[in-house]
Fold this protein.
Amino acid sequence: MTQDAREASAVHPQEIKDPILSMDNFCLDLDGRRVLSDISFSVPRGAITALVGPSGSGKTVLLRSFNRMNEWDGTISVQGLLEFEGQDIHSPATDLLELRGRMGMVFRIPNAFSMSVFDNVAYALRAQSSHPSRRLLDEGVERALRRCGLWDDLRDRLAEPAVQLPPGLQQRLCVARAVACSPAVLLLDEPCSVLDPLATAELEDLLLSLGGNPTVVIVTHNPQQASRISQYTAFLSRGRLVEFGPTERVFQRPLRRETDDYISGRSG
């Protein structure tokens, strides 16, 4: 394969057979400034996809494009196409509340609500149903905590304020809250950036234990984390997609010198 062919393959990756999110020449301007340019790739359903790249490369902006949270940050305009399950998310017919309800989100800083452990997880269940029964809440909270490996740690602490939990436990609780309503996609924006190595390992184990349900998209500043937990990796730089593909291939046989320099630590 020639260098030109390798670069074309990196920027225009082969089509994913069962995408849950797809972008085709997607561009985004925020308050009149171009932030993302000509992004084209698809997020595979049931996998963990990592977004990596230097600071300021557009990773978080892209992540927040999937549930249109960039609209909270300023005036946006878009070009190209961004689809969720085959539907253009910027179509006038898109129900924004429904879209965001199908995408759980976990942020960089653990943001447990100022309420009990139980009510943190039940918050999502109450939002989904107007008058959920106590039995429905009890079962839903236990199910979410069990899925996230937290039931044994928290079953006797359900009435305690969640904000008093250690940061690592808080962040895993935030994941439990996000998956309580069975979203199609879980978006994570550098969820381990303030965690110690042990808490980071526990959160990574949690994400792997979800088994592809929901689909996970994670922004990480740590290439080694992407290599440990993701099946696919998108490398961004200066608001553009440099390379996308299976994580093993991207890390072991990158198609672009820029990708190789970043992964090896020579840049970024």
Observations:
- The chain is about 35% helix and 25% strand.
